[in-house]
Amino acid sequence: MLLIYCPYCQEERSELEFRGAGDAHIARSADIASISDEEFESYFFIRDNPKGLIFERWRHIHGCGRFFNAARDTVTDKFIVTYKAGEPKPEIGAAAAQHGPVETYEAVEGEAQ
User: Fold this and answer.
1) DSSP state, residue 20
2) What distance in Å separates the CA atoms of residue 70 and residue 7, rounded to the nearest whole number?
3) For residues 24 and 37, what is the distance between their CA atoms, to the nearest angstrom?
4) What is the average pLDDT across 22-39?
5) What is the signed CA dihedral for 88, 79, 2, 9, rounded to 10 degrees?
Protein backbone atom coordinates (compact mmCIF):
# COMPACT_ATOMS: atom_id res chain seq x y z
CA MET A 1 0.00 0.00 0.00
CA LEU A 2 1.23 3.47 -0.86
CA LEU A 3 1.25 6.38 1.53
CA ILE A 4 0.55 9.71 -0.14
CA TYR A 5 1.30 13.05 1.50
CA CYS A 6 -1.57 15.55 1.27
CA PRO A 7 -0.13 19.08 1.20
CA TYR A 8 -3.38 20.51 2.63
CA CYS A 9 -3.90 18.05 5.51
CA GLN A 10 -0.11 17.86 5.98
CA GLU A 11 -0.31 14.12 6.63
CA GLU A 12 0.65 10.92 4.88
CA ARG A 13 -2.49 8.88 4.27
CA SER A 14 -3.34 5.57 2.61
CA GLU A 15 -3.65 5.55 -1.18
CA LEU A 16 -7.25 4.36 -0.70
CA GLU A 17 -8.18 7.91 0.35
CA PHE A 18 -7.04 9.41 -2.98
CA ARG A 19 -8.05 9.35 -6.64
CA GLY A 20 -5.91 10.23 -9.60
CA ALA A 21 -7.26 13.05 -11.76
CA GLY A 22 -5.00 12.96 -14.81
CA ASP A 23 -2.08 15.05 -15.96
CA ALA A 24 -1.08 18.19 -14.10
CA HIS A 25 -0.20 21.52 -15.70
CA ILE A 26 -2.26 21.01 -18.87
CA ALA A 27 -2.89 24.19 -20.84
CA ARG A 28 -6.68 24.45 -20.96
CA SER A 29 -8.52 26.68 -23.40
CA ALA A 30 -10.46 29.54 -21.81
CA ASP A 31 -13.13 29.25 -24.52
CA ILE A 32 -13.53 25.56 -25.35
CA ALA A 33 -16.29 26.26 -27.89
CA SER A 34 -13.83 28.13 -30.10
CA ILE A 35 -11.33 25.29 -30.62
CA SER A 36 -11.47 22.80 -33.48
CA ASP A 37 -12.57 19.19 -33.05
CA GLU A 38 -8.98 18.04 -33.62
CA GLU A 39 -7.66 20.37 -30.91
CA PHE A 40 -10.39 19.21 -28.52
CA GLU A 41 -9.61 15.57 -29.27
CA SER A 42 -5.92 16.17 -28.61
CA TYR A 43 -6.67 18.00 -25.35
CA PHE A 44 -9.31 15.58 -24.07
CA PHE A 45 -8.13 12.14 -25.21
CA ILE A 46 -4.48 12.16 -26.24
CA ARG A 47 -2.00 11.78 -23.39
CA ASP A 48 1.62 10.76 -23.19
CA ASN A 49 2.42 7.60 -21.28
CA PRO A 50 6.06 8.15 -20.33
CA LYS A 51 8.22 5.81 -18.33
CA GLY A 52 9.73 7.67 -15.40
CA LEU A 53 8.86 11.00 -13.83
CA ILE A 54 5.40 12.47 -14.47
CA PHE A 55 3.33 15.28 -12.95
CA GLU A 56 -0.25 14.36 -12.02
CA ARG A 57 -3.32 15.84 -10.34
CA TRP A 58 -4.72 13.96 -7.37
CA ARG A 59 -7.73 14.48 -5.13
CA HIS A 60 -7.96 13.58 -1.44
CA ILE A 61 -11.54 12.38 -1.75
CA HIS A 62 -11.82 10.68 1.65
CA GLY A 63 -10.07 13.51 3.46
CA CYS A 64 -10.10 17.23 2.77
CA GLY A 65 -11.53 16.74 -0.75
CA ARG A 66 -9.01 19.12 -2.32
CA PHE A 67 -7.00 18.72 -5.51
CA PHE A 68 -3.21 18.80 -5.44
CA ASN A 69 -0.36 17.96 -7.79
CA ALA A 70 2.29 15.28 -7.45
CA ALA A 71 5.51 14.28 -9.15
CA ARG A 72 5.54 10.47 -9.34
CA ASP A 73 7.91 7.91 -10.84
CA THR A 74 5.84 5.52 -12.98
CA VAL A 75 8.48 2.79 -12.78
CA THR A 76 8.72 2.56 -8.99
CA ASP A 77 5.35 4.20 -8.18
CA LYS A 78 7.15 6.47 -5.70
CA PHE A 79 5.76 9.94 -5.04
CA ILE A 80 8.73 12.30 -5.24
CA VAL A 81 6.90 15.43 -4.09
CA THR A 82 3.33 16.68 -3.66
CA TYR A 83 2.31 20.33 -3.78
CA LYS A 84 -0.84 22.45 -3.69
CA ALA A 85 -2.89 23.04 -6.83
CA GLY A 86 -2.06 26.37 -8.42
CA GLU A 87 1.56 26.28 -7.32
CA PRO A 88 4.18 26.15 -10.08
CA LYS A 89 5.84 22.90 -11.05
CA PRO A 90 8.71 22.45 -8.56
CA GLU A 91 12.34 21.86 -9.44
CA ILE A 92 12.66 18.25 -8.38
CA GLY A 93 16.29 17.44 -9.14
CA ALA A 94 17.31 17.34 -5.47
CA ALA A 95 14.11 15.60 -4.34
CA ALA A 96 14.45 12.91 -7.02
CA ALA A 97 18.09 12.32 -6.10
CA GLN A 98 17.06 11.43 -2.53
CA HIS A 99 15.08 8.47 -3.86
CA GLY A 100 18.08 6.92 -5.57
CA PRO A 101 18.21 5.29 -8.98
CA VAL A 102 15.05 4.15 -10.68
CA GLU A 103 14.57 0.39 -10.51
CA THR A 104 13.17 -1.34 -13.54
CA TYR A 105 11.64 -4.79 -13.83
CA GLU A 106 14.60 -5.91 -15.92
CA ALA A 107 17.10 -4.70 -13.32
CA VAL A 108 15.31 -6.52 -10.51
CA GLU A 109 13.93 -9.65 -12.19
CA GLY A 110 16.05 -10.01 -15.33
CA GLU A 111 14.83 -9.98 -18.90
CA ALA A 112 11.08 -10.46 -19.39
CA GLN A 113 10.16 -13.91 -20.65
Assistant:
1) E
2) 10
3) 22
4) 86
5) -30
